[in-house]
User: Fold this.
Amino acid sequence: MHRKNPYLNENESGAIGIGAMIIFIALILVAAVASTIIIKTAEELQQRAEATGDDTRDEISGKITLVAAYVSAEDVNVATQADEITLMVQLSAGSDTTLLSSMSWFIVCDGGAAAEVNEGDFTAATELDAATLMTATSASVDAGQTFLVAINVDGSAGNLCQPSVGDEQELRVIIDGGGETYAQLHYNSVDAGATIV
Assistant:
């Protein structure tokens, strides 16, 4: 004798199986979409973090450290003015090898009616230890390498910002694609050898 299920007939039990499968497939699709969004967001955050890290490294390590600055020649005609100053600088730790032609300096001073700017680059730098002139535009420096840069500030030679005793000037050293160094130059004396930083 064949027993019949009083609660479910054949069509109803099949409908329950299809419904469960539809819910299962929907859950898989939702999980796939959610995991795709999470992975994409994680990749974007990683790329942003790497870009920020590179920019920060360039800003911090890709800059010049001013070790010292001094008057290297005083004006022979005017005893209270300087003709040349020398910067002793080095590339910050962790910096990549940098071309001297990629480095530039600016001195800003009060010119009376308006600010004056004396500017130049590092292509005529001199190595500190060997006293070798590094004039080639292809010359480069490594991190920690100390070198000298002579800056002509002789007003009679057409240079702006000739310093006198008591003057204060702003010095900025910039590396293309790197950081910027700022220093305040104080001229308490313009005798040869007098420190100005």
In short: The chain has two domains: 1-61, 62-186. The mean pLDDT is 82. Residues 1-61 form one domain.
